[in-house]
Write a structure and sequence with these properties.
6-stranded parallel beta sheet, 332 residues, two-stranded antiparallel sheet, 11 helices
């Protein structure tokens, strides 16, 4: 049984403790950091490009939540399924979609991962088993159960990884999906990026029982709650959950306590969040915490190289997207 972790008391928890890299190899630590750094650079650049009018529609940025996507995705295989959320840029990059293809998709270009037809809300690439995201909150939960059901029918050991936010747990689709996954003992791992807000509503005002762990246990699904801003903790929990699902032990649920550093979407100033809360979570930045741990482990040069590589990769992705032809039927 895990320790009790209440979202209402997240500011009282030691979520800014130094990261412990002793349980993972230096190569893995660098890989996790490099992927987080790529996602951070991608999101920051997308924000600027959106303001410049390069990206149509709207965007839901995930900066601040990189450790959740990277830690969970590192625990699965390329051949395992993954479903993404409407805040899915980081999840897509973590699953293996290239920065070029993802940026081009946001630009509505033919070279995008969905040929420019999905945009920010529907990114994905079947070549890496990343199901194009569904913008309807919670809709991917039963779909992930279906992917897991199909995987089991193939008589292999593929699993499905389903990313959700805390708001998805109060949608009707979620109850059916979780219940079927548990009832049928399906090989699916649900990863909840609990950033404490559903648009502007705090988790305590979303459900009479705000504890995600308590609600998931009611379905009979084992749950583990972790520091979602510690990529090593997310990776460890996801690895345990994936191993159980792959071994035929049924669904697992990993709750990652994290925080989006911006508003719900680009036009949301997030003034509903207390200043002290925002400042405390900014101090727990997952990318910064991992960088400090790498420096302490004597990997500063490698981390510097990863930082530089991320900038080069996103420069290249932006140039590639800008030079690519518009998707068929798109009027500039």
């Amino acid at each position: 049984m895990q320790a009790d972790v209440s979202p209402a008391a997240e500011l009282d928890r030691d979520l800014d403790a130094p990261l412990d890299l002793s349980s993972i190899a230096p190569a893995l630590a660098m890989s996790l950091y490099a992927r987080m750094r790529l996602i951070r650079e991608f999101e920051q650049r997308v924000n600027k490009l959106f303001l410049q009018g390069k990206i149509p529609g709207t965007i839901h940025l995930s900066h601040g939540q990189e450790a959740c996507a990277v830690g969970a995705s590192a625990a699965i295989r390329t051949t395992d399924w993954a479903t993404f959320t409407h805040r899915g840029h980081g999840q897509a990059l973590a699953k293996g979609i290239s920065a070029r293809a993802l940026m081009a998709e946001l630009f509505a270009r033919e070279t995008g991962c969905c040929r420019g037809m999905g945009g920010s809300l529907h990114v994905g690439d079947m070549k890496v088993c990343g199901l194009p995201a569904i913008s309807i909150v919670g809709a991917s939960i039963p779909i992930a159960a279906g992917l897991a059901y199909a995987a089991r029918a193939e008589e292999g050991d593929r699993i499905a990884l389903c990313f959700t936010g805390d708001g998805a747990l109060t949608e009707g689709d979620s109850h059916e999906g979780y219940n079927l996954a548990a009832l049928w003992h399906l090989p699916v791992v649900y990863v909840c990026e609990n950033n404490l807000y559903s648009i502007s509503t705090r988790v305590e005002r979303q459900a009479a029982v705000p504890s995600v762990a308590t609600r998931m246990e009611a379905y009979g699904i084992p749950v583990e709650t972790v520091d979602g801003n510690d990529v090593t903790a997310v990776y460890a929990a996801a690895t345990r959950a994936v191993a159980a699902a792959r071994a035929g032990d049924g669904p697992r649920f990993v709750e990652c306590l994290t925080y989006r550093q911006g508003g719900h979407k680009r036009d949301d100033p997030a003034t509903y969040r207390p200043r002290v809360e925002v400042e405390m979570w900014l101090a727990r930045d997952p990318v910064v915490r991992m960088r400090r741990a790498l420096d302490a482990a004597g990997l500063t040069a490698d981390a510097d190289a990863a930082d530089a590589s991320a900038v080069v990769a996103i420069d290249d992705a932006a140039a590639f997207a800008d030079a690519s032809p518009l998707a068929s039927g798109v009027i500039e």
